[in-house]
Amino acid sequence: MMNNIDLADELRAIANLMIIAGEDEFRARRISRLADDIETLPEPIEKAYEEDRLEQLSGVGKSTATMLTQILETGTCDARDKIEETVPLTVLDLLEISGIGVKTAKTLYDDHGIKDIETLDASVADGTLAQVKGFSAKKIEGVKAGIERIRRRNIERPLQEVLSIGEQIAETLNTVPDTRIVSPAGDARRGREYSRQVRLVVGTDNIGRAAVALGRIGLGDGSLKTHVRGEFGGGFPIHVHLTPNDCFGAVWLRESCDRVHLDALNARASERGLPTLGDEDAWKGLDEAGVYEKLGYPYVPPELREGVAALELDALPRLITVEDYVGDLHSHTVASDGANTIEEMAEAAKARGYKILCVTDHSRSSAYAGGLTVERLLPHIDAVRAANDKIDGITLLAGSEVDILPDGSLDYDDDILAQLDWVVASVHSGFNLSEKKQTDRIRAAMENPHVRIIGHPTGRLLSSRDPYPIDVAALIEKAAETGVAIELNSSPERLDLSAEWCAKARQAGVLISINTDAHRRETFANIRYGMMTARRAWLEPQHVLNTRTVDEIVAFRSEARS
Questions:
Q1: Which regions of the chain are under pLDDT 50?
Q2: pTM of this prediction?
């Protein structure tokens, strides 16, 4: 059965289809609002369904309850099936292009026959789109970039999805006797943002049984093989390597390197008169560290196994780990668009061993996210401080994720900002500014003495939105000048700042703040993705604000600018 987020996505798709089909726009907006309510529902929608309480939910009447029931039971509903008779589902793909909203998609479909990405691309190529009102040359360039991103997505999947597919396969293989370990390899183990395939290494002394288990889920034909290949939905390749348990270390290492790194390891093996890593039996009984040691190298963490840089050093840095992490400095509650209360988020952070949590609900300009007016913010600050007094073992800071307005000013006046314990400044609108204006905008925000972190600085959403035009090097330069930290947002949809730019920030002496931007307590777990990105950037604990003591983090708010 669908979870809350999946159901909310389905309802939004129905609402958009209704508008494109020319149906009752008021009803479509009600369904869209219901999607928001269900996404932030403090209980699983499945529970309300099983207890026959759907009509008791906010915004749900008899007909809407029937729609929800149909979707939960069958994956579709009468309203959607009716619309699909006249409007193709592919028209929803247009909404993934920056600058194309639901009403623009309706115009493109109704007036120009543009029904999917292919016809949109053709309209760009033949000049048709340039004749549509509102599509300037600049906007068409954005459309081209969006089309390219969607095509790339068809052959690449984001890190979270690749790891999730691997975990689903692992659940099947973990039931096979004598199977000791099932682990991700390839791009995903190195923490790359995208992968073109899922790679798994399975240590098992029952290869035949493991192959049969894979065959049952559509991977391979169940025959005795050590290399099993298949596809996931949409033709995404999966490669599972089955190896005896005592050969696992060498195979896992080999399957986790990029080609350049592996070639260097094999060259070193040849120099020493050793077999290459392709000869699994020759490396039997060694774990990954043992293989590196035999080759005369220090152990190289997976995130650094690209190229030869890590092999050229006598000693490697001690990369940051989640054990170094003191707390999350960017999170949301029900006060704006989060799903949990202050207390619930605090208890969840405390359960993870965190010593500090910054509650940074949205500011007033983010009305779509329930941004807090000044009248709502002030009692919210008091509520955070009251929770801090009540909950032992963790320090709560009353903060805000404050919008950076197009002119570089902040969404609250300085007298209000001064009452906050913590300020994360972020861009949530005005993505179409020129590179210079966008860069100047954020640099101006860094000048405000209350700002401590610039949140998700390039604005990218990995599967749906390219970064806005921005001179990241200029931001890093300004951060070094002002002492403001730059965020590495661990949300798997963002991973913003990228590993490449985090490395540039490290080299410039700029602090990185790794945060999950958690909107519900479960998403604190997304720190795993931020950590992988940070390690790819060669970040050590001293490069990351979140590894400081609570007193040092609190003091960072008022540190003099260098």
A1: 560-562
A2: 0.79
